[in-house]
Amino acid sequence: MSTVLSNFDTWKHFLSDRVTQAKKMGLTEDTIANLAYEIGSFLDEKVDPKNDEESVLKQLWDVGDESERKAIASCMVKLVEHS
Q: Which domain of life is it from (predicted)?
């Protein structure tokens, strides 16, 4: 995963592919957003930011409460859906 996270555009493409796969499997928007939240939590705890964009996301994640973190995750899903 480190290669995927080294470039923000690569990360967005990777996430976009996963969102597309999840939709094809029939997962709902809420389920996908919840999975994005879980991934965000994992990355926050286990992975150091690899670029400026990830550093900003980590800082926002760290100051946000649970509902704000869920909003960030949901926005990331929307971002890759519209890219």
A: Bacteria
